[in-house]
Amino acid sequence: MATPKSAPLQTPAGRNVNNVVLGDLLFKPWNQSVYPEDLVAKDADRLYVCRWCFRYSCDEDIFEEHKSACEHRITPPGMKVYDHGGFAVWEVDGQNHKLFGQNLSLFAKLFLDHKTVFFDVATFLYYILTFTDPDDPDSYFVLGFFSKEKLSWDANNLACILIFPPYQHKQLGKLLMGVSYKLSGWDSNGGCIGGPEKPLSELGHKSYVRFWAERIARFLLRGKPSGSSLETDQQKPSSTPKGSRKRPLRETITVEELGLGTGMLTEDVITALKSMGLFEPQATPKKRKSTRTAAEDNTTPPGQMVTIRKSDVWEWAQAHHLSLDDPVREEGFEGHWPRENVSDGDGQSVSSEED
């Protein structure tokens, strides 16, 4: 899995398509294509790809003829699940739209080095991101997509993700990542805590760690969500003697609860906190020498406390120019998706402390 941000510095060895024309946009592919050789000749100068259905041809005349008759030129296939600010996400079932899924996968391979599923698309759902210009409401552009397995034993909420090169560096990848977490949390079967398929590529890992960190920062800075069970000092009778220094506001939540609140796996929560420089377990009291092995001594004790000062989270957010507004708006989801997610759990503890 990868989330491309920029083209490789070197031309991929054996690249058999020199240029791609997506609608009226011309750009270079990053990887060798796996298109059938009887349809896409080796060393093709230009591959014309329909911006609505991703059918392809090396013949410009055939391409132009198809554009005027494409069955998806007015609306994408599948069901709309999200619509806000001109951006929409459509769920496309690979079983019902096999040709669309295959053509999209073949096109994505030009930019995703690790993508391996091209034709067996029936077991996947595809979520395509579109934009409709208010000045031209009868036309739309497909900007990218993510895919996920219908049945994932590892609770993966995403298999691969791609924002097409002409539309990158616009925070659209984070929008799709956010949608993937929302949909898995609101799944009709009761929801699940999950994450992207692993192992991640180097670029995919970098993108996700930043996304996770921003997600956690918003959660900690915007206050506890409805339905969560955070215990704060304000909810307890104060035992601070009169005239003494008032203790800072303190909320206690476990890492697992933080994962439930953000829809993230515990391991991803810890990865994000470490990347933010916030994961510093408190020193535990020294105990008398025991006969435990070195391996046992290196394990993290259950319930290990970690203190996070809200001022440190604010400092991280400001340094990274983080907007506290979630890029995914709940009011944008269509149909039955939105529902309250009540969470509870036990595990490794984190306390959020405000100076």
From TrEMBL:
Under the GO molecular function aspect, what terms does this record hold? histone H4K16 acetyltransferase activity; zinc ion binding
Keyword Acyltransferase listed? The answer is yes
Q: Which UniProt keywords apply?
A: Acetylation, Acyltransferase, Metal-binding, Nucleus, Transcription, Transcription regulation, Transferase, Zinc, Zinc-finger
Where would you find this protein in the cell? Answer: Nucleus
Biased amino acid composition, Polar residues: 226-242, 292-302, 346-355
Q: Which residues form the MYST-type HAT domain?
A: 12-301
List, as start-end ranges, the regions of compositional bias called Basic and acidic residues.
Answer: 323-342
Q: Does the keyword Transferase apply?
A: yes
* Catalytic machinery residues: 197
Q: What is its EC number?
A: 2.3.1.48
Which example biological process does GO assign this protein?
Answer: regulation of DNA-templated transcription
Matches recorded under PROSITE patterns = MYST_HAT
Q: Which PANTHER family match?
A: HISTONE ACETYLTRANSFERASE, HISTONE ACETYLTRANSFERASE KAT5
> What's the family?
Belongs to the MYST (SAS/MOZ) family.
State the protein's purpose: Catalytic component of the NuA4 histone acetyltransferase (HAT) complex which is involved in epigenetic transcriptional activation of selected genes principally by acetylation of nucleosomal histones H4, H3, H2B, H2A and H2A variant H2A.Z. Acetylates histone H4 to form H4K5ac, H4K8ac, H4K12ac and H4K16ac, histone H3 to form H3K14ac, and histone H2A to form H2AK4ac and H2AK7ac. The NuA4 complex is involved in the DNA damage response and is required for chromosome segregation. The NuA4 complex plays a direct role in repair of DNA double-strand breaks (DSBs) through homologous recombination.
State what protein this is by name: histone acetyltransferase
